[in-house]
């Protein structure tokens, strides 16, 4: 299993909307590195759901429930989506400030490639963030 981080602006698609929808396709990715990360995702992988721009915090965990396929919001064949479903809301959100303050997370893609909307997370980083969240 691999771990990931997916960014969403809360005013466009917040965690609460995903919980209500129960499942969605992750669309709108228009960066080749982020697209390649979507293509690398496997059914059953887990991802942190990160509120970007406002909130700037990890709020929950999602599961990849369908591997990549053509993005239905565009005719351009370069772009793909995956389907995700909520797993759980974190006991305590983990803010960007808290991640920056944790020495063991200094190499996290969230800090190194801050504009990338779909990012890999190492198993060690995953476990540290879960601990920070009280999960």
Task: Please describe what this structure looks like.
By secondary structure, the protein is α+β, with helices and mostly antiparallel strands. The chain contains five helices and six strands, in the order E-H-E-H-E-E-E-H-H-E-H. It has a six-stranded mixed beta sheet. Strand 3 (46-51) and strand 4 (57-70) form a beta hairpin.
Descriptive tags:
single chain; 135 residues; alpha+beta; 5 helices; 36% strand; globular
In terms of topology, how is this protein built?
Layout: E1 3-8, H1 15-21, E2 24-25, H2 32-40, E3 46-51, E4 57-70, E5 80-95, H3 96-101, H4 109-112, E6 118-121, H5 123-133
Parallel strand pairs: 1-3
Antiparallel strand pairs: 1-6, 2-5, 3-4, 4-5
Radius of gyration: 14 Å
Structural class: alpha+beta
Distance between the termini: 19 Å
Q: What would the principal axes of the Cα set say about the shape?
A: globular
Mean of all residue-level pLDDT scores: 97
The largest beta-sheet arranges its strands as 2-5-4-3-1-6
Number of helices: 5
User: What percent of the residues sit in helical stretches (DSSP H or I)?
Assistant: 25-40%
Topology, number of strands: 6
Secondary-structure element string: EHEHEEEHHEH
Largest sheet: 6 strands, mixed
Poorly predicted regions are none
Q: What fraction of residues sit in β-strands?
A: 35-45%
Summarize the structure.
This protein has helices at 15-21, 32-40, 96-101, 109-112, 123-133, and strands at 3-8, 24-25, 46-51, 57-70, 80-95, 118-121. With 135 residues, it is α+β, with helices and mostly antiparallel strands.
């Amino acid at each position: 299993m691999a771990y990931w981080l997916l960014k969403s602006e809360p005013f466009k698609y917040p965690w609460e909307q995903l919980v209500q929808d129960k499942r969605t396709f992750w669309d709108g990715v228009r960066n080749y590195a982020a697209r390649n990360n979507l293509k690398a995702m496997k059914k059953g992988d887990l991802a942190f759901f990160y509120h970007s721009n406002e909130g700037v915090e990890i709020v929950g965990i999602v599961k990849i429930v369908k591997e990549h396929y053509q993005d239905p919001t565009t005719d351009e064949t370069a772009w793909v989506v995956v389907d995700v479903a909520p797993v759980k809301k974190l006991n305590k959100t983990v803010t960007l400030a808290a991640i920056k303050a944790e020495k063991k997370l200094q190499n996290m893609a969230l800090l190194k490639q801050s504009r990338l909307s779909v990012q890999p997370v190492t198993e060690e980083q995953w476990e540290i963030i879960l601990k920070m969240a009280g999960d």
